[in-house]
Design a protein that fits this description.
With 313 residues, the protein is of the alpha/beta class. It contains 13 helices and 12 strands.
Length: 313
């Protein structure tokens, strides 16, 4: 297998010049760069990515930190981030941590070039320490001074609550998300405001983990409210509700409307059911793109991006 020395010899340049040319350095004359690139192609030379990154003082590794793997909302975010990382020549690794201690950030920072921090539950100060340790992008949370991208689900939840009230649902339940969740605070505030404006009675049941079991367990409390519509924090909670309601003889959506996502409506054949349509892959791709720009010096920290979230049905 040819190495960098072989490429340099064929191109008639030093090994250092060949390295700079293949790395796109502006210090190499254009005609020399063309000669080196042609030599590499002719020899079938494949650069050692790891060695190249180490020479630049990098590992080429990005950590995406999620608080749990129980919430399926994070799966497409990881997939989108990984696809964009591959395009940028970076390796993505997944770390599961609620980011509620500084030690975890410090250990991870020594092994990666940057972070994608998804829905962290720690304090603003603690989460910001990740951004101070290495370039970082927050996903589904906003902190002043840190680059972030969020799906604007709060606005979508508010719109959904207003729509349900306009359709005649005067008793609505919001099943909240995990304790300490920034998004849950935003959604709760939006739902409360929309219900108050519409004159609907709102019951908030939470905090709850974003799991199927949590949906099953909260069902008796939901039924007891006498509500005709439920807005769950997460799809997994909604699925638990759907199962438990069915075992109680409650017909959805005739007796009780439970909002969910489009894929669930299609899979279960639910009609007249509203859906919050979050593009998780786009969320992950956008976050990874923002981080790649930071690493390349094209962006300063602090940019905040909000992606629109449509309400369907």
């Amino acid at each position: 297998m040819p190495d960098l020395s072989d490429v340099a010899a064929v191109a008639g340049v030093s090994k250092a010049t060949a390295s700079r040319a293949l790395n796109g350095s502006g210090l190499v004359a254009p005609e020399t760069a063309v000669r080196v690139t042609a030599a590499a192609a002719r020899l079938g030379y494949v650069p050692n990515r790891a060695a190249r990154e180490l020479a630049r003082g990098r590992t080429g590794i990005i950590a995406i930190v999620v608080p749990t793997l129980d919430n399926t909302f994070f799966t497409p975010i990881i997939a989108g981030a990984q696809a964009r990382a591959e395009e940028a020549g970076l390796q993505l690794t997944v770390a599961v941590h609620a980011l509620d201690s500084a030690s975890a950030v410090e250990r991870l920072a020594r092994q990666v070039d940057g972070f994608l921090v998804v829905a962290p539950r720690g304090s603003d100060t603690l989460v910001a320490s990740a951004g101070a340790a290495k370039p970082a992008v927050l996903v589904d949370r906003e902190i002043d001074g840190m680059t972030s991208v969020v799906a604007d689900t709060a606005s979508a939840f508010g719109t959904l609550t207003s729509r349900l009230a306009a359709e005649g649902h005067q008793r609505i339940v919001y099943v909240g998300g995990p304790e300490g969740s920034w998004q849950d605070r935003q959604r709760t505030a939006a739902v409360r405001d929309a219900a108050r404006t519409a004159g609907a009675e709102l019951t908030v049941l939470g905090p709850r983990p974003a799991t199927f079991v949590a949906g099953v367990e909260v069902t008796p409390a939901v039924v007891e409210t006498g509500a005709t519509a439920v807005v769950p924090y997460a799809t997994s909670i909604g699925l638990g509700l759907l199962l438990a309601l069915g075992t109680r003889g409650v017909e959805v959506p005739r007796d009780l409307v439970v909002s969910t996502e489009p894929t669930v409506i299609e899979a279960l054949g639910l009609e007249h059911t509203p859906a919050i349509d979050v593009d998780g892959e786009e969320l992950g791709r956008t976050a990874m793109d923002l981080l790649a720009r930071q690493l390349d010096g094209q962006d300063e920290p602090g940019r905040q991006v909000r992606l629109p979230v449509p309400v369907r049905g």
